[in-house]
Design brief:
The protein is mostly beta strands. The protein has helices at 2-30, 179-189, 373-381, 441-446, 530-533, 575-578, and strands at residues 33-47, 50-57, 66-69, 73-80, 88-91, 117-123, 129-135, 145-151, 165-174, 198-201, 218-221, 226-233, 239-244, 249-254, 257-264, 266-269, 274-280, 287-295, 308-314, 397-409, 422-428, 431-433, 480-482, 485-488, 493-500, 509-513, 518-525, 544-545, 547-550, 554-561, 566-572, 583-588. It folds into three domains: 31-158, Cupredoxins -  blue copper proteins (Immunoglobulin-like); 160-321 and 358-382, Cupredoxins -  blue copper proteins (Immunoglobulin-like); 397-596, Cupredoxins -  blue copper proteins (Immunoglobulin-like, Sandwich), CATH 2.60.40.420. It is built from six helices and 32 strands. Strands 10-9-12-17-14-15 form a six-stranded mixed beta sheet, with no helix packed on it. The longest helix has 29 residues, at 2-30. The radius of gyration is 25 Å and the shape is globular.
Length: 610
């Protein structure tokens, strides 16, 4: 009897151990390796009645959608057949210990030269939701970008009811000229770059722009079904309000981090930010505009005031064509880029991707005024983590940094056409960031190459003043150029206060930190005062993001643990500001163990050309 009992106990223990082992190994066993080839090339497209050549990936605009699962390993071979140098960045991926795959030019790698190639290799580690990828070299990301969708591990559900369909909604900007030429003109003259000529939704301006209505993006829906819209602001320089006529949207995630669900009629996204929203098709069957237009927070600064539209179209809506293939145009299977294609789509108008162009006039949504800061603030303040979180602390390293514009004095002439005969610039703590051009910052750090950068970025402004005043003395307007990094100890609890300034113009700045997500503890207006404003910190359920909009004439406080060694760019995601110098970089030291150190560079890392 005792032997039988012992035998039963052994079997039970073995079964339990096997079950535990399966639970431990199953997620890894289900993970897959995925390979993509991205050919960067020139492609002829037609927008706003004009055919022009742009740089694309695989001839698609927007570029291919990458769909993976949490835990998957990804290899993306980038082949550069274009005439420009290029790098690719996987926006929001943490790239743990693997900065070599992060992508910003001359920060973590030298560019892929024309005719060259480089394979980005990384593993998705405990991330899921909507991210995106884009070029991180010059202004190529204007047309070189696409969605990066990470599903939960296989077999695991969303933390919300599963939607019937999912649709990427990519917002962007369009210039009638080559965006690289727009940037080059600005760099030569010293004036801010020209604003874009149109806003886009899934590569198309929509019904309100010339020669565009036949190509307006269609989102097909069925009465009673719930769709997940994965909204991405890939615009170069414009924060955007997004609204859907006749429907409310339920926000369930931001920057690939789940949020406490809340209903809204307006979504605000700065460049680089994403939002996942659920929409149930409960309205009368018909056609409804999904529209996007600028949130322009800077007074007196030019902006693109067009409105981009897509159409939320019900199946079997009165007056609309009916066909079984109507869903093919806006959402399909894994890895499909179902909302892009050739520029001249006249031959494709009867295909699934262009059904429903005819029909009754869609209903227009309410969109806030261009300068509606109250609505922008209300949306941002509604974001919360779904459950209480453990906010890291106490703080061991703190940075208080200004973020704003500056003007460089110069001799009046053709190279000095900025405001008041100056050259336009931008800075953090009065340092206008300059990239090296012979070796990347990560390579210089990893290989101990001297003379490339210094690690003395100031943790506080060199001068404290009324940062948000409209009458800042001109002596404070000129920054100093430099390649200065801020050194962070591995494991440090880092708190960064971003403070907008009124130099030239106050403006909301979407600040992105590569390699990290961070908790947004608080935002506010005016000058940050730690004695007053620390009491406003949300230490219970702050949202976690990778890009935070620093309010116009205000401040934002973020906090994170420095658990990812390497060199990580911190910058405004408005590219006109980034190219003006509104950036710095964190140099996060290795920890004590091998698993706390930057991995060795890959053998095919692009060679730097001296």
């Amino acid at each position: 009897m005792a032997a039988t009992a012992r035998s039963g106990l052994v079997k039970l223990l073995c079964s339990s151990a096997l079950l535990l082992l399966c639970c431990f190994l199953l997620p890894g066993a289900l993970a897959e390796e995925r390979f993509y080839e991205f050919v960067v090339q020139e492609t002829l497209v037609k927008r706003l009645c004009k055919a022009q050549k742009i740089i694309t990936v695989n001839g698609q605009f927007p570029g291919p959608t990458i769909e993976v699962y949490n835990g998957d390993t990804v290899a993306i071979k980038a082949v550069n057949l274009a005439q420009y140098n290029v790098t690719l960045h996987w926006h929001g991926l943490r790239q743990l210990r693997n900065g070599w795959a992060d992508g910003p030019e001359f920060v973590t790698q030298c560019p892929i030269r024309p005719g060259g190639s480089y394979t980005y290799r990384f593993t998705i580690q405990d991330q899921e939701g909507t991210l995106w990828w884009h070029a991180h070299s010059s202004w190529l990301r204007a047309t070189v970008h696409g969605a990066l969708i990470i599903h939960p591990r296989r077999g695991l559900p969303y933390p919300f009811p599963k939607p019937h369909k999912e649709f990427p909604v990519i917002l962007a900007e369009w210039w009638r000229r080559d965006p690289i030429a727009v940037l080059r003109q600005s760099m030569i003259t010293g004036a801010p770059p020209n604003v874009s000529d149109a806003l886009l939704i899934n590569g198309q301006p929509g019904d309100f722009l010339p020669c565009s209505s036949q190509e307006t993006s269609i989102i097909p829906v069925v009465t009673g079904e719930t769709s997940l819209l994965r909204i991405i602001n890939a615009a170069m320089n414009t924060e955007l309000f997004v609204s859907l006529a006749g429907h409310k949207m339920t926000v369930v995630a931001a920057d690939a981090m789940y949020t406490k669900p809340f209903e809204t009629t307006v979504v605000l996204l700065g460049p680089g930010q994403t939002a996942d929203v659920l929409v149930t098709a409960h309205a009368a069957p018909g056609r409804y505009y999904l529209a996007a237009r600028a949130y322009a927070s800077a007074q007196g600064v030019p902006f693109d005031n067009t409105t981009a539209t897509a159409i939320f179209q019900y199946k079997n809506a009165p007056g609309c064509p009916t066909t079984a293939g109507a869903g093919a145009g806006a959402g399909a299977g894994m890895g499909a880029n179902t909302f892009s294609g050739p520029a001249d789509r006249s031959s494709a108008r009867s295909s699934g991707s262009h059904l429903g162009r005819t029909g009754p006039q869609p209903m227009l949504p309410f969109l806030p005024a261009f300068n509606d800061t109250n609505t922008a603030t209300a949306f941002s303040n509604s974001l919360r983590s779904p459950e209480p979180v453990k906010v890291p602390g106490p703080v061991t390293q703190e940075v208080f940094t200004t973020v704003g514009f500056g003007l460089f004095n110069c001799r009046p002439g053709p190279f000095c056409q900025g405001p008041n005969n100056t050259r336009f610039g931008a800075s953090m703590n009065n340092v206008s960031f300059q990239l090296p051009n012979t070796v990347s910052l990560l390579q210089a750090h990893y290989h101990h190459i001297p003379g490339v950068f210094t690690d003395d970025f100031p943790p506080f402004p060199p001068v404290f003043f009324d940062f948000t005043s409209q009458n800042i003395p001109r002596a404070l307007w000129q920054p100093v150029k430099g390649t200065r990094l801020y050194r962070v100890k591995y494991g440090a609890v880092v708190q960064i206060v971003f403070q907008d300034t009124g130099i030239f113009a106050a403006e909301e700045h979407p600040m992105h930190i590569h390699g990290y997500h961070f908790y947004v503890l608080a935002t506010g207006f005016g000058n940050y005062d730690p004695r007053r404003d620390a009491a406003k910190f949300n230490l219970v359920d702050p949202p976690s993001r990778n890009t935070i909009g620093v309010p116009v004439g205000g401040w934002a406080v973020v906090r994170f643990v420095a658990d990812n060694p390497g060199v990580w760019l911190v910058h405004c995601h408005i590219d006109a500001h980034l190219t003006g110098g509104l950036a710095m970089a964190l140099l996060v030291e290795d920890g004590e163990s091998q698993l706390e150190a930057t991995v060795a560079p890959p053998l095919d890392l692009p060679i730097c050309v001296l």
